[in-house]
């Protein structure tokens, strides 16, 4: 029918594809981005963007259902754990779809607002995301919709000095876990690591000036479908520095020390109960993605040519500084990887604007040394 457009949502492994039609005049769809702690633990992303799905009666019965709260269920792929939909218990109200599951066609989505920024403590990814759309400020609320409105760079504007944010000492170990807490681990500080150029797990993971774990963002298609978010934050750590939550910090890690051992342990018929609900999926011949088999949170990314290290989803970290964990992580403010995957569609401007905002943030915070293109 003339004037209608069909949109599609799909999981990473393509086992599930959903289509719906709506008037072209309804585009772009307005996305609400939630930064609450629960959404960060649910996805592994630093924020959870979603739009209303056009079909209120979409059949989601083939998906994994998880009770996110008393009033809301979330739905993901049983195979690859991609986050897809959220639906309340009133069947006549349309579900929400994660924007990361949507196609990258032009003018499909715009970020309209940000909620629960206060949960992040440090602002999380919000200061780096677009300040305005079509000349209008993107609203940012400290809590739920229409609560106290805050500026785009909150909490810097409330601080006596931007350089004074997050300057406290980092704990020796930072817990990280998924929403259902089926996966509960901890990340030991990199302070005891000296960067050895000959050793992949330290030269790749650790910033030599600060002895913090490196962190950066990316926008690759596989990651955004897996997380359900459009921009993903990762940090990188040797497996020697990941511990089971029940382990004493002073003892050597009992966590698997190579990605081969990790996969074998997760798939073992006599699986160590401390691995909890950790599951593995081969997203490509040499890449493994680890997630929770209950709530579907993304946990690790592992690739075969880096045998003793993994990428960790930053949204899982429970650090006293806040969501960006800046006393633990050294952010590369000049890197937003895989921008080519966003080219040609609605995400292209989102990625370009975010990358520019990250550089502006670094200059404001006097972190120019961490701008590496």
UniProtKB/TrEMBL annotation:
PROSITE patterns: CENP_V_GFA. GO terms for molecular function: carbon-sulfur lyase activity; metal ion binding. Keywords: Lyase, Metal-binding, Zinc. It comes from the Eukaryota. InterPro entries: CENP-V/GFA, Mss4-like_sf. It holds the Pfam family GFA. The keyword Zinc applies. Residues 1-112 form the CENP-V/GFA domain. The keyword Lipid metabolism does not apply. Belongs to the Gfa family. PANTHER family: DUF636 DOMAIN PROTEIN (AFU_ORTHOLOGUE AFUA_7G04120) (PTHR33337:SF32), GFA DOMAIN-CONTAINING PROTEIN (PTHR33337). This is Mss4-like protein. It comes from Colletotrichum godetiae.
């Amino acid at each position: 029918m003339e004037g209608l457009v069909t949109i599609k949502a799909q999981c990473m492994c393509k086992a599930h594809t959903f289509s719906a039609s709506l008037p072209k005049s309804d585009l772009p769809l307005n996305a609400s981005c939630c930064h609450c702690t629960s959404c960060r633990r649910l996805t592994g992303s630093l924020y959870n963007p979603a739009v209303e799905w056009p079909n209120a009666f979409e059949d989601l019965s083939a998906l994994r259902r998880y009770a996110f709260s008393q009033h809301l269920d979330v739905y993901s792929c049983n195979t690859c754990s991609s986050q897809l939909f959220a639906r309340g218990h009133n069947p006549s109200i349309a579900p929400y779809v994660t924007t990361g599951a949507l196609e990258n066609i032009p003018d499909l989505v715009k970020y309209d607002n940000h909620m629960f920024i206060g949960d992040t403590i440090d602002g999380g990814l919000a200061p780096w995301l677009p300040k305005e759309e079509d000349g209008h400020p993107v609203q940012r609320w400290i809590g739920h919709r229409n609560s106290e409105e805050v500026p785009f760079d909150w909490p810097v504007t409330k601080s006596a000095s931007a350089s004074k944010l997050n300057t406290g000492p980092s704990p020796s170990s930072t817990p990280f876990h998924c929403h259902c807490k089926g996966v509960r681990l901890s990340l030991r500080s990199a302070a005891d690591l000296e960067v050895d150029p000959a050793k992949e797990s330290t030269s790749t993971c650790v910033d030599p000036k600060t002895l913090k774990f490196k962190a950066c963002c990316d926008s690759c298609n596989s990651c955004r479908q897996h997380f359900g978010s459009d921009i993903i934050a990762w940090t990188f750590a040797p497996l020697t520095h990941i511990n089971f939550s029940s382990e004493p910090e002073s003892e050597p890690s009992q966590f698997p020390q190579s990605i081969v051992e990790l996969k074998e342990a997760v798939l073992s018929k006599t699986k160590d109960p401390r691995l909890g609900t950790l599951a593995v999926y081969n997203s490509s011949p040499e890449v493994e993605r680890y997630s929770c088999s209950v709530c579907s949170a993304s946990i690790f990314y592992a690739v075969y040519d880096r045998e003793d290290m993994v990428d960790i989803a930053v949204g899982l970290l429970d650090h006293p500084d806040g969501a960006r964990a800046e006393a633990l992580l050294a952010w590369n403010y000049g890197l937003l990887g895989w921008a080519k995957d966003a080219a040609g569609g609605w995400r292209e401007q989102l990625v370009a604007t975010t990358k520019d905002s990250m550089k502006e943030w670094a200059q404001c915070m006097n972190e120019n040394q961490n701008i590496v293109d």
